[in-house]
């Protein structure tokens, strides 16, 4: 049983507070653009893989901490610059340009585009690039999320595994051809 509030003014004040709480909980959580930007940058910084947020002209709008750490670059070397001008022009790849400028606008996504390059400060690396276009309801321009995954070590392990399998197959083939050499007294 709810306690009954006797005073009319108190009862009305309670109703107003309850209505305000309900309105606040059903409103958009980020009506302030600065709050939305802060949230977006926090998300970008939380992602473990290097990530760039690009505008429609492929200029860098936001950069993840992991991008700075992975590529060993400073903020002023990346933020606001065109993607193709970063580093030593390492992203100036015709097939990547085609993907980002033509295919992404049509399909909105790109997965596992492989780039092998000698990067300044970190050496030869194999990177898988994934991209997603972000479309906005209230205006025509889009942004692009571009994530980088360093698969250099994975590729080295895969090559080593292939070589070991090849060697094993060769040893088994030799055993079948010459069983005496392997200690079998057939």
Helix and strand layout, with pairings?
Blueprint: H1 8-26, H2 33-46, E1 51-54, E2 60-63, H3 65-71, H4 94-107, E3 109-119, E4 123-135, E5 142-150, H5 152-177
Antiparallel strand pairs: 1-2, 1-5, 3-4, 4-5
Mean pLDDT value: 82
Rounded radius of gyration (Å): 28 Å
Number of strands: 5
Q: How would you spell out the order of helices and strands?
A: HHEEHHEEEH
What would the CATH topology of the domain at 32-152 be? Beta-Lactamase
Oligomer: single chain
**CATH architect. name of the domain at 32-152:** 2-Layer Sandwich
Q: Helix share of residues?
A: 40-55%
Unreliably modeled segments = none
Note the beta-strand portion.
Answer: 15-25%
The CATH class of the domain at 32-152, by name, is: Alpha Beta
Shape: elongated
Please state how the strands of the largest beta sheet are arranged side by side: 2-1-5-4-3
What does the model show?
It is a single chain. This protein has a domain at 32-152: Beta-Lactamase, CATH 3.30.450.20. It is α+β, with helices and mostly antiparallel strands and 186 residues long. Helices cover 43% and strands 22% of the residues. The chain has helices at 8-26, 33-46, 65-71, 94-107, 152-177; strands at 51-54, 60-63, 109-119, 123-135, 142-150. It has a 5-stranded antiparallel β-sheet with strand order 2-1-5-4-3, with helices on both faces. The protein contains 5 helices and 5 strands. The model has no long low-confidence stretch (mean pLDDT 82).
